[in-house]
Every structure is written in C-alpha cells, then in structure tokens.
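> forwarded from #structure-qc
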C-alpha cells in the first residue's frame, strides 16, 4: 500500500513545515483565524 504522489508530496511539505517553520505556521494560523473572525 503506497501513498500516491500528491499525498506523499503533501506529507513531505507538512513534515518540513512542522520541523522548520512551526512558529511561522502557528502565527499564520493565528492570522488566518483573526482574518476569518
């Protein structure tokens, strides 16, 4: 059972973001939530 390419790519991207840009992502989510409200 292998991931298709799009899923694999998405997983790599999210792993990369998790390890390198955690603070940035948290800030982005905060800004996004603020924009929605």
């Amino acid at each position: 059972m292998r991931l298709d390419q799009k899923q694999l790519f998405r997983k790599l991207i999210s792993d990369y973001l998790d390890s390198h840009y955690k603070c940035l992502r948290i800030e982005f989510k905060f800004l996004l939530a603020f924009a929605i409200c």
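QC bot note: The two ends are 41 Å apart (CA to CA). Helices lie at 5-20, 22-36.
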